[in-house]
Amino acid sequence: MPNQKRTTIDDSEVERFSALAGEWWDPTGKFRPLHKFNPVRLKYIKEKTCENFGLEPNAPKSFTGLRILDIGCGGGLLSEPMARLGADVIGADASETNIEVAKIHAVQSGLEIDYRAVTAESLEQSGEQFDMVLNMEVVEHVADVNLFMSSCARMVKPGGLMFVATINRTAKARTLAIFLAENVLKWLPKGTHTYEKLVTPEELEAPITSEGMELIDRTGVFYNPLMDSWNKSSDMDVNYMVLAKRPA
């Protein structure tokens, strides 16, 4: 029996998010948690990026000159802010439906973003290189975590960064991020996350470091129900972000 080519695509996950594509830009819809989560991750990305590249954080186009990949971009919730900051952005997603939604919204927003329906491994194999890879809330939906993370890491230029955000595989995450979020609070459609596919920091970091990148920051992210907002935290048991750099 011939060996099957490895892929990061999980067809059921692509179908699930394609079916929801029309909801991406509704802040009160199915992707409300991501809209709420966006401010804390955008602040983190901007702070660490300006620090790394010696950029002026208060400049309106502080990311001018940076080439950024937003992998698993969905409808473009991160791609658009990056483009507004002046970056040259490629938004990639396995769902052609998501990409079409993202393209339409970018035109409506007056932004030029290179959206592509393509996988991380295909981009890497074509020789693409970036100053920064945004790998946010996607690794828990892929079929091959090691292949996905390795492919993303290989596309980071010397001196460049990769931001990763996902959900830890813990009992607390099963309760809060899956049962509570999907069944009680109804923040997300049932089945959005599968416990077995959640990724621990150790599982996430192993393929990154094996590709020669250095881990330079880790932070938890928690939801404050009283403030209805997300904030950074030392607790990585549920949501967390990891930052890696390729040595110059």
Question: What can be said about this structure in brief?
Answer:
The protein is α/β, with parallel strands linked by helices.
Q: Give the integer mean of the pLDDT values.
A: 90
Ends distance: 43 Å
- What is the subunit arrangement here? single chain
* Helix vs. strand class: alpha/beta
Q: What does the main sheet amount to?
A: 8 strands, mixed
Shape: globular
Number of discrete helical segments: 8
Which radius of gyration do the C-alpha atoms yield? 17 Å
Order of adjacent strands in the largest pleated sheet: 3-2-1-4-5-8-6-7
Report the order of strands and helices: HHEHEHEHEHEHHEEE
* Helix content estimate: 25-40%
- Low-confidence segments, given as residue ranges, are none
What fraction of the residues are assigned to beta strands by DSSP?
15-25%
Describe this structure in words.
The chain has 248 residues and is an alpha/beta fold. 36% of the residues lie in helices and 23% in strands. It contains eight helices and eight strands; from the N terminus they run ααβαβαβαβαβααβββ. It has helices spanning 11-19, 32-53, 79-84, 96-108, 120-125, 145-154, 171-184, 201-210; strands at residues 67-71, 88-93, 114-117, 130-136, 156-167, 214-224, 229-233, 239-245. An eight-stranded mixed β-sheet has the order 3-2-1-4-5-8-6-7. It is globular and about 45 Å long. It starts with 10 loop residues before the first helix and ends with a strand. The mean pLDDT is 90.
